[in-house]
Amino acid sequence: MNPLPSDDRPQPRSLTDLFVSFTLLALQGFGGVLAIVQHEMVERKRWMTKEEFVEEWAVAQIMPGPNVVNLSLMIGGRYFGLPGALAALAGMLTVPLIVVLLLALAYARYANHPGVAGALHGMSAVAAGLIASTGLKLLGVLKKNPLGVPMCIALGTACFAAIALLRWPLVYPLLGLGGVACVLTYRKLKP
After folding, report:
1. By CB neighbour count within 10 A (0-12 exposed, 13-18 middle, 19+ buried), where does 79 fall?
2. What dihedral do alpha carbons 13, 85, 56, 183 form, nearest 10°?
3. Same domain for 133 and 173?
């Protein structure tokens, strides 16, 4: 994990600021959290650089559990240690849990309505678009990657093909392509 950011960069003011920030983040992120998290943490609040975001998001993805929850723990811990991690986690889970329970009650009542099914299909398309746009925004970070842009694109394409086209479980591309990427990066960085 990266060291603490310098004092001249914005950072959360308090545990309450962390809690409220992650609550608002969680309430915006139904189905397309990556785009929202990147926008809030990097562009709006500037608590992280694009490079820090990509690095920490990569770690959050390989840890067990929801990616954004893992990221909230890392960011909260970075600024305030264990209390910060717990405040960010509580922000991610408390109010959204209540909202999801209320939505589950409403869905149980109206699940058979054709408008509900249509709305859910539309939301999935929007979520896919948000994820794709965030990937394109972060593409510039690959210029600084030791493997270079062509190799990163080749690995990303292979991962997409394995998961989306071949329908392999995530664990196989993660271990296989992730292992290849780690070995290649190690060889490039080795003095």
Report:
1. buried
2. 150
3. no
d(CA 113, CA 175): 42
59: left (phi over 0), alpha (psi -120 to 50) or beta: alpha
DSSP 8-state code for residue 3: P
State the Cα–Cα distance between residues 172 and 28, nearest whole angstrom: 31
- What pLDDT band is residue 167 in, cutting at 50, 70 and 90? very high
Q: pLDDT digit string (tens) for 55-92?
A: 898 898 888 888 888 999 999 999 999 999 999 999 99
Query: How far apart are alpha carbons 104 and 102 in whole angstroms?
Result: 5
Which of these, 87, 112, 82, 105, lies nearest to 26 by C-alpha position? 87
Instruction: Count how many domains the chain has.
Output: 2
Residues 52 and 100 in one domain: yes
Strand, helix or coil for residue 8? coil
Say if CB 58 and CB 51 are below 8 A apart. no
Same domain, 136 and 49: yes
Query: Is the sign of the CA dihedral 67, 70, 76, 79 positive or negative?
Result: negative
